[in-house]
Amino acid sequence: MTGQQQRDHAGQGQEHEWPGVTVHEADPAAVEADFYHVRETVGPEDQELLATVRDWARKNLAPIADDYWERGEFPHELIPQLPGLGIAGLQFKGYGSPGRGALVAGLVSMELSRVDPSFATFHGVHSGLGIASVMECGSEEQKQRWIPEMLRWERLAAFALTEPGVGSGTSRGLTTTARREGDTWVLNGRKKWIGNATFADLVIVWAKDEADGEVKGFVVQQGAEGFTPHRIDGKVSLRTVQNAEIELRDVRVPEADRLQEANSFRDTAKVLRATRLGVSWNAVGCAMGAYEAARAYTLEREQFGKPIAAFQLVQDQLARMLADITACQTMNVRAAQLQDAGQLTDQQASMAKMFSTTRTREVVAHARELLGGNGILLDHEVARFWADAEALYSYEGTRDMNSLIVGRAATGISAFV
């Protein structure tokens, strides 16, 4: 029985009887890790979308997630199905976007991640970082040219900011350079950990202008001369995501493909503020998936003549996991509401990401513990969530860096350097 089958079976109610064990009907909200009914914070139409995404992920993504994760490959055959779901650029308005808002977009990311955090990351890079870069920093002409195709998944996007020697210090230490020659820019440098970079049609490359020292954004077409993505192998987290180290050697980009409203790192930060919350939602989904798989396992696994779910220590861990998940969900709902109102601050986004990824790390550790030795096997799904939580904990700002952003807000003192 696969992990998803275990979850579905366990969610149907207990079919067995054990001597000395009193069985009650499980709370459906606890079964699916939505104890405070966060899905009901959106309207009926949006709830229908969430149900559609949940059903699609269970039927199409869940059966293949472990296999692709183990092989370190990406299920490209699923991409043609995505336009029909209508989940790209949900948080934006105009240019063909559904315009459903940040809360719905976050809940969709949660639904994808509770089945496969790798696929949710692929979606987030394209729908969040890629589309957001053009929406926030592109000219009207560039939005008209690229956004509709990106919404239809006809052109896939990647976001190239992090470098081999520069992670948290990108605002000051970016080493990739851009030099203008007439109506053309020449890019040189290296990027690392760039999701989707091996197959994305449009790669948003952030580079420092040699003339004024400011960070600017450039849309590089896949296959451009001098643009070479090298897939990163040997990962133990988010293995399905095709991360790459990109080599840029005299890559020529026309001025028309420079993001016209990206004139400093402050503009880059506008993109990161919203997408940092997206990673927080992915972490929530990862925690939910681990909890649901572990809960199902504890009802199936019997020791001493009864399911291990009947033991107090097991129920205590499940209760702790569910409480952590619920705390993260409610924080993210409020942050998304602030984002929809145009009021989300950097420090609020950072708190959500810091808190959610930390709690997710704890939830997946509890899940792995509940499975004992089976916790390291892909057969029960928990191992995949356990490993994937490590990448979510680190990218889009580490826990420590995000804590310093919150700390600066609390004290008025910058402690970064």
UniProtKB/TrEMBL annotation:
The keyword S-adenosyl-L-methionine does not apply. Gene3D superfamilies: Acyl-CoA dehydrogenase/oxidase, N-terminal domain, Butyryl-CoA Dehydrogenase, subunit A, domain 2, Butyryl-CoA Dehydrogenase, subunit A, domain 3. Residues 1-20 are annotated as: Disordered. PROSITE patterns: ACYL_COA_DH_2. Residues 158-251 form the Acyl-CoA oxidase/dehydrogenase middle domain. PANTHER family: ACYL-COA DEHYDROGENASE, ACYL-COENZYME A OXIDASE. Residues 269-410 form the Acyl-CoA dehydrogenase/oxidase C-terminal domain. GO terms for molecular function: acyl-CoA dehydrogenase activity; flavin adenine dinucleotide binding. This is Acyl-CoA dehydrogenase.
